[in-house]
Amino acid sequence: MNYLHNRFRKEADKLAQDYIASIPFDQRLYRQDIEGSMAHVKILTNRG
Question: The whole model's pTM is what?
């Protein structure tokens, strides 16, 4: 699905299309991504 297609009349350039290509996959992994970021912050905090 092209997420930009419904918002603009002209087709998005290749760079924009490549940037948003992973949105459907990212939406399924957002919880794991947040948990990983939080774990990284804890490690950095413990290391000073």
Answer: 0.54
CA-wise closest residue to 4 among 36, 16, 46: 16
Residue length of the chain? 48
CB 34 within 8 A of CB 21: no
Q: How far is CA 8 from the centre of its chain?
A: 21
List Cα–Cα distances, 27 to 4, 36, 41, 46, in angstroms.
16, 15, 22, 30
Letter string b/e over residues 2-36, b meaning 16 or more CB atoms within 10 A of that residue's CB = eeeeeeeeeebeeeeeeeeeeeeeeeeeeeeeeee
pLDDT per position as a tens digit, 19-44: 888 888 889 999 999 999 999 999 99
